[in-house]
Specification:
- The chain is 34% helix and 25% strand.
- The longest helix is centred in the first third of the chain and has 16 residues.
- The strands form three sheets. Strands 1, 4, 5, 6, 7, 10, 11, 12, 13 and 15 form a ten-stranded antiparallel sheet that branches. Strands 9-8-14 form a three-stranded antiparallel sheet. It has a two-stranded antiparallel ribbon with strand order 2-3.
- It has two domains: 253 residues, no CATH class; 53 residues, no CATH class.
- Strand 2 and strand 3 form a beta hairpin.
- It has 346 residues and is of the alpha+beta class.
Length: 346
């Protein structure tokens, strides 16, 4: 599902105080009082169920237009428990709706440029997928398991940020976040107009895995222009990033493999299994020597394990990866809960 998007589209319209997107200006002056630079502030435009996106008049690559930032799916349908993966259709439908609200009639050439995607530049795209684990308890257990036994290639283990487990925190390129959708809705309740639907119950069993891609990374992937996105791109790019999450299989090590370990490695394995940080117990060369030896048996001591008293609450990580992918429920199709942009993009 497409979540947050930050993008630019060319659009001829009045700038400054005559603009429907005018929300004031930020200006900088020289010590002599002359204008050094100025920028228009972002205006908030309300969508469905009081959700908003931010819009600012701007000039980008010598082209006048607007820069839009927000959760477009939520702007249309009032929630982001589920939604569409078609970024091109979402942006086209969103810009058309923005123009309708602002009272702007775009030209045929502008609409054609948006539809082709070549004129639309992307600065941030969040793509998220959910795994249905059945209930909130299993989702929380899966997060503990990921914290104990997973790390991202070249970036290491995750860091808890509130109730979210974030891999690649602070990266200017991309990051991966795992979190429970149910508790998030507790903190940010659904709009009252959606309370009659079983959205909250549906969200309680969802483990959300969100990939955030910023401008530098989008350019590296060749995805900084909307024209490079097809209906399948979001799913493909999400899976590509998720595949870099390395998960230790040590919880599945069988007893015969353990018996085959030399005595010195059995002691190392036992300390690691109990949740000790072996980097603190051994000199660096010794730690990496033990790690190389144990990797041959499918054990990675670089991934810290949960303490023994916590281990009873940790589910095998394989459950996370083979859990049933969450889909759009049948009861949401044809209702205001599901915005299908391919049917509404003009």
């Amino acid at each position: 599902m497409i979540d947050w998007v930050d993008f630019f589209v060319p659009l001829n319209h009045d700038h400054g105080q005559g603009s429907p997107f005018y929300a004031g200006e930020i200006m900088s002056t020289t010590p002599d009082g002359e204008l050094d630079w100025g920028i228009y502030k972002r205006m908030e435009m309300e969508g469905s169920y009081s959700t908003k996106v931010q819009i600012r008049s701007t000039i980008h690559d010598h082209r006048p237009g607007i820069r839009v930032s927000g959760n477009l799916v939520k702007w249309h349908q009032g929630h982001n428990v589920f939604g569409s993966n078609d970024l091109r259709a979402i942006i086209l439908a969103s810009v058309s709706r923005i123009c309708d609200i602002a009272g702007i009639k775009p030209s045929i050439a502008e609409i054609s440029a948006w539809a082709s995607g070549y004129a639309v530049d992307l600065f941030r795209v969040d793509v998220t997928e959910s795994q249905d684990l059945g209930n909130r308890q299993r989702v929380q257990a899966a997060l503990r398991a990921l914290d104990a036994s997973a790390h991202l290639k070249m970036r290491g283990r995750g860091t808890y940020y509130g109730d979210s487990l974030l891999f690649g925190k602070g990266s200017r390129r991309w990051s991966l976040t795992a979190y429970a959708k149910g508790p998030e809705i507790d903190k940010h309740p659904l709009p009252s107009g959606l309370s009659e639907y079983p959205l909250k119950a549906h969200a309680d069993g969802l483990l959300r895995l969100e990939v955030r891609m910023l401008s530098m990374h989008l350019k590296k992937l060749g995805l900084a222009s909307l024209e490079r996105w097809s209906e399948n791109t979001a799913s493909e790019v999400h899976q590509m990033h998720l595949s870099t999450l390395e998960i230790s299989d040590s919880n599945m090590i069988d007893t015969t493999a353990l018996d085959a370990l030399p005595a010195r490695l059995k002691a190392v394995y036992q300390l690691w299994k109990e949740g000790h940080d072996l980097r603190e117990l051994y000199p660096r060369p010794t730690f990496y020597r033990h790690r190389a030896a144990l990797l041959a048996h499918g054990i990675d001591i670089a991934v810290k394990q949960a303490r023994r008293e916590e281990s009873s609450n940790v589910i095998p990580l394989k459950v996370v990866l083979v859990a049933k992918p969450a889909t759009i429920p049948d009861w949401a199709i044809g209702t205001p809960l599901y915005f299908n942009p391919s049917l509404r993009a003009a």
